[in-house]
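Quick illustration for those who missed Monday's session on complexes.
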Amino acid sequence: MATVRPSALRCGLAALLCVSWTLPVAAQCEIPPLALAWTNTTVTSDGLGVTRGIEMGIGTPNQIFALRPYTALNNTRVNNVADCDSTSNDTCVGGEGGVFNSQNSPSYSVSIKGNWNGSQVDTEDSTGSYVYFNDRVSFQSAASVYGFPVVMDSEPQGGSFSGLPIGTNSSFLRAAVHGGVAPSQVVGLWAGSRSLTPVDGLMVLGGYDAARVNGNFTSFPVADASAALPCPLQVNITGLFFAGQSLLGDSQAMTACIEPYVQRFVFTPAVAQTFAQITAQNASLYKGMDYNASNTPPGDLTITLSNGYTTNITNDELFTLRRGSDQYGRYAITNNSVVEAGISDNRAKSPASQTPTLGGLFLTFNYLVMDYENNEFRLALAVASDVQTGSSLTTVCTPTATPSASPSPTPAPPWVFSAALLAYPYADSRADPQTTQPR
Ligand SMILES: *[C@@H]1O[C@H](CO)[C@@H](O)[C@H](O)[C@H]1NC(C)=O
Ligand SMILES: *[C@@H]1O[C@H](CO)[C@@H](O)[C@H](O)[C@H]1NC(C)=O
Ligand SMILES: *[C@@H]1O[C@H](CO)[C@@H](O)[C@H](O)[C@H]1NC(C)=O
Ligand SMILES: *[C@@H]1O[C@H](CO)[C@@H](O)[C@H](O)[C@H]1NC(C)=O
Ligand SMILES: *[C@@H]1O[C@H](CO)[C@@H](O)[C@H](O)[C@H]1NC(C)=O
Ligand SMILES: *[C@@H]1O[C@H](CO)[C@@H](O)[C@H](O)[C@H]1NC(C)=O
Ligand SMILES: *[C@@H]1O[C@H](CO)[C@@H](O)[C@H](O)[C@H]1NC(C)=O
Ligand SMILES: *[C@@H]1O[C@H](CO)[C@@H](O)[C@H](O)[C@H]1NC(C)=O
Ligand SMILES: *[C@@H]1O[C@H](CO)[C@@H](O)[C@H](O)[C@H]1NC(C)=O
Ligand SMILES: *[C@@H]1O[C@H](CO)[C@@H](O)[C@H](O)[C@H]1NC(C)=O
Ligand SMILES: *[C@@H]1O[C@H](CO)[C@@H](O)[C@H](O)[C@H]1NC(C)=O
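Prediction with 2-acetamido-2-deoxy-beta-D-glucopyranose bound:
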């Protein structure tokens, strides 16, 4: 944290207009952080399909995507238009957060895998086929970058595995810094709220939003390859209580991944079983972790990590009316006499198949800063979602002396960097569909 410099969001975005992406790296820290809202985004041409995610435009003209940040990706991944039989199928296009049609983008440029300038390839699915390409990528109202690496996934039944890469070697973060739209690869993230009174989240590239942080940051080391779980943001849960009753039982700790790509909590099947018992979940009347809306279980969920860091998940965020995808692929209430807990019902799953996960719901109550360069991530309690805050963007950047590519004499559209999109077949360990949910 060599430079800590607050600036207003609007100034930040406006200032981007005056900054050339060919600035030497030494001046990189002068670039304001880039704020990207995590918000409802229209992803279908008829304007009806809306997905909640970080908005990104790919191609010329822009094709709009709403992507969730995903630590298991190093490269931006979007779904192929072919996954949905037709772009007018709002359920499909909305559900996938947008689909890409390369034929509609003259600036689309396919690479062969070996020559593509994204990160070393993420794991691939045996049933998918992948195209690696470069195209223009635009961020919300502000910056765009030419030469941006993107992977397009084509899946027989629709991939729904699109995501914004926040892995430890993210070509997205690298391209944002290289393209001069962010001062550093540090990411600040607040997930917003998916309660019945939803609030937009905010992702900050090159810093964080100090207005959403309530208290001091606690540091955690980034997990390496020898860690228990295959994720960079790993914590040990040593205390887990619902309404004061322990859910952990005899097991002393549970190692979990912090993963914004997933919305709910995923615990072990034994913990889910205990939670269902304590809350008197009636499995013969209600499927999943669902309850009669007139009898919502009372109490908060309290999570304590091994260093003592403690979060309370409030009852009104933990239990919400039953929601699912409507005909436009939107996330909407589907049954107002049923509430669901934000805890995955994996009671019947084998423990080995489950990765305990603190998802977006955890990040409603916690502000996350990823600083891979310093091999750490930080958590602080977030300002409650029902409190309106402006944003106060704070740069996190370590100046380096190394000059970047030679300055270009054409100060064309200042922050235009392009994306590389690459396609080829591969196999991967897909996210457990049970742990993800409609976005
Ligand atoms: C639209 O897509 C959904 C989900 O992919 C699929 O189930 C449905 O059959 C499609 N509808 C039409 C009319 O193609
Ligand atoms: C990150 O990816 C780039 C591009 O594939 C590669 O050159 C580099 O070695 C990777 N870095 C690490 C730390 O693996
Ligand atoms: C991302 O890159 C890092 C460093 O090269 C690597 O350790 C990690 O496994 C990669 N993640 C994925 C999902 O491929
Ligand atoms: C990646 O390749 C594209 C297309 O060749 C190019 O425009 C872009 O500048 C390259 N990006 C980086 C970071 O090298
Ligand atoms: C934050 O840290 C400072 C300095 O260590 C300390 O004085 C302050 O009490 C801490 N604030 C909270 C809310 O823990
Ligand atoms: C979690 O606990 C295990 C066992 O004590 C330890 O090996 C591991 O390093 C811990 N992980 C984290 C992220 O603290
Ligand atoms: C579930 O509800 C049914 C019908 O009201 C009742 O007979 C049954 O005992 C309940 N089961 C549990 C475990 O509460
Ligand atoms: C839900 O609870 C209310 C109040 O206890 C009761 O009247 C209603 O019948 C219950 N609904 C179902 C489907 O059991
Ligand atoms: C969480 O709730 C417990 C019990 O209500 C309370 O003692 C504690 O201070 C709360 N912690 C935070 C961080 O709000
Ligand atoms: C986002 O859209 C959903 C419907 O898909 C709606 O219920 C929700 O209120 C919207 N969120 C915001 C912050 O407007
Ligand atoms: C809502 O769920 C209850 C309990 O499962 C069920 O009886 C009712 O038919 C559902 N209502 C709708 C509109 O699906």
